[in-house]
Amino acid sequence: MKSHIVLAASLAALALAGCGKPASPTAAGEPEPTPAAKKPAPPEKTLSIFCWSEYIPPSVVDQFTKETGIKVSVENFASNEEMLAKLMAGGGRYDVIQPSEYVMGSLVKEDLLQPIDHAKIPNLKNVAPRFLSMPFDPGNKFSVPYMAGTVGIVVNTDLIKDEIKGFGDVFQEKHKQNIVVLDDAREIVTWAMITQNIPINDVSDANLEKVKPIVAKWIPLVKVYDSDSPKTALLNGDVAIGVVWGGEGAILLNENKKFKWILPAEGTHLFVDNLAIPKGAKNVDNAEAFMNFILRPDISKQISDAFPYLNTNLPARELLTPAQRANPASFPADEDIAKMQSFEDIGTQASKIDEMVTSLKAQ
Amino acid sequence: MAGLAGHPPAPADAKLIRRKPGLMPWLILTPLLAWLMLFIVVPTIMLVVVSFAERDALGRVVYQFSFANYARAFNWVWLKVLAESVWYAFLTTVICMAMGYPVGYFIGRAPQRWRGVLLTLVMVPFWTSFLIRTYAWIAILSKEGLVNSLLVASGIFAEPVTLLYTPFAIVLGLVYNFLPFMILPIYTSVEKLDGAMIEAAYDLGAGPARAFSQVIIPLTSPGITAGALLVFIPSIAMFAITTLMGGGTNPTIGEVIFKQFTSGRNQPFGAALGTLLLLIFVIALWFTRRMREEH
């Protein structure tokens, strides 16, 4: 909601700025304008951000405007693909976008991003080395990490007494209609692939055929599909077990002691969300200023307070409370992170995965 | 048009009498025509064009003529999803009609001074976004929600019952959201209903059942068909309520199309499904029109 207000406010500001301009041509007979008045106006101090919903706290955006005078408009998306579709259709409307690792890979490959100037983003040094120069963007030529995270299992221990270790324990007949999972076909198929030790990016037709029976067994057990707020069904007691984002899990753990976080024994995947500048962006300098601002430890801490994902900013982690740092859903152990795989772009295979999951749901 | 058939044939010199529309009517019509062109005709053409295209790995539309999307659309999976969506929409329409008719009738026959108040009450929910109202239903129906707390506290049920994330919740959400669309057109028809007609029916010996089925229903049928269409058509494609309240376990056609444009990364296929849905609406409209003409 707030982002809409920001958007409306900045639109209004733009409109006012636009109205101001036509006044400049002088009427006939008036004295020649002074040379100073002829100078081009200073560049517009605006920035347009296209980011995930529920990911950049409005307070952070407000503080950026207060400190720099740059007016920010925020637009949200709910999936990487939604961002991609709008980016392809709308071109240079956005100055900052927030793609996840696998989309970053294809954006770099397709030459759709503007290289960033590291001299203007000194705070990049705050990022943990593990999250720098990742395979999708060697040398961070185009992006800086925003937050990372993983997918894991949350169990309501009031309702489920037996021990849950991995995906195999979640998807059992006795938990039928008691499970919430992310509403994301690739996630579900990935979990099935992990249980079969298939590398998660190896989505050949043969491998999809191999995991299909597993997914077919899992889907009738699921009660709710929700990517936006899977915590709701768990909090309301409508389901007792869920496979959810780490950040959502962390909020549940903070909410009530009855919730337990489990990193799947079979393995899971690590996602890294980034800030990047699309080619054709109009306010590149402001975008770089925003990236540097986000990487400031005190700002990064504010983001962690609101959305407890895996913070990649080392000095910011120092600012967190011990309890925040100890939240296993936010911060998995280093040796666990080392074992996690990350998504790569799978192109048109995404449609096949979508069709497979939809057809199994419809059965 | 059908109404014209009853008139005597027009005189031969009708052409001379008929006024030629001047520039003014066209000027007045321009905003409407521009609106129709920009927001209905052009998007529909785009949808149809894209439905014959292909897409690349990043989901960009590649304009290369292909029937593949339609070939894929005629698969039992999508047909089943469509059939289920039509079924939910049908159920919603029937329930809305059963609930909406008495309400519309009551308001339409209520004393003049009460009608405004009653109509406002019907429309009050529209002042809030339907998404917020749907989230409110989640709070009401969940296992630790209002209904279950009351049921358990009053001892009617020992354990909370599953209400949310069921087909029941889907239909409830749809009925709740679309009921006013049924009430309002029925109210309009009932308001115009001539009381003398009903009295005449009674005077001629009809009982209440007969007066209702043979006089009141036919006279208010324009409101009934309008209401049915206003409920049925948007219910088929509605995806927000069905995913939020149904838990996404039974995909509806609206949800499937939405996903093609996002995570499925297949706009052309989504466009093909959208075009087919559009065809169904056209057929539904044509069908009700035919029915009306027959009366």
Helix-strand layout with pairing:
The complex is a heterodimer of chains A (363) and B (295).
Chain A: H1 2-20, H2 35-38, E1 46-52, H3 58-68, E2 71-77, H4 80-90, E3 96-97, H5 101-109, E4 143-156, H6 167-170, E5 179-181, H7 185-195, H8 205-218, E6 222-225, H9 231-235, E7 241-245, H10 246-255, E8 259-262, E9 270-276, H11 284-294, H12 297-306, H13 314-319, H14 322-326, H15 334-339, H16 349-362
Parallel strand pairs in A: 1-2, 1-3, 5-6, 5-7
Antiparallel strand pairs in A: 4-7, 4-8, 4-9
Helix pairs in contact in A: 7-8, 7-16, 8-16
Chain B: H1 14-17, H2 23-51, E1 54-55, E2 61-62, H3 68-73, H4 76-109, H5 112-123, H6 130-141, H7 146-153, H8 167-192, H9 195-203, H10 208-237, H11 240-246, H12 253-261, H13 267-294
Antiparallel strand pairs in B: 1-2
Helix pairs in contact in B: 2-13, 4-8, 4-10, 6-11, 8-10, 8-11, 9-10, 10-13, 12-13
SS element count, helices of chain B: 13
**Count of separate structural domains of chain B:** 1
Shape of chain B: globular
Helix content range of the residues of chain A, please?
A: 40-55%
Numbering strands along the chain, what is their spatial order in the largest sheet of chain B? 1-2
The Cα radius of gyration of chain A reads 23 Å
Strand pairing plus helix content of chain A: what structural class?
alpha/beta
Folded structure, characterized:
Chain A has 363 residues and is α/β, with parallel strands linked by helices. Chain A has 16 helices and nine strands. Helix content of chain A is 41%, strand content 15%. In chain A, the strands form two sheets. In chain A, strands 4, 5, 6, 7, 8 and 9 form a six-stranded mixed sheet that branches. Chain A has a three-stranded parallel sheet with strand order 2-1-3. In chain A, helix 7 packs across helix 16 and helix 8 runs parallel beside helix 16 (349-362). Chain A is globular and about 65 Å long. Chain B is mainly α and 295 residues long. Chain B has a single domain (72-294), classed as Orthogonal Bundle (MetI-like fold), CATH 1.10.3720. Chain B has 13 helices and two strands. A two-stranded antiparallel ribbon of chain B has the order 1-2. In chain B, a hairpin with a 5-residue loop joins strand 1 (54-55) and strand 2 (61-62). The two termini of chain B are 14 Å apart. In chain B, 31% of the residues are buried. The model of chain B is unreliable at 1-11 (pLDDT under 50). The interface between A and B is large, with 35 and 37 residues.
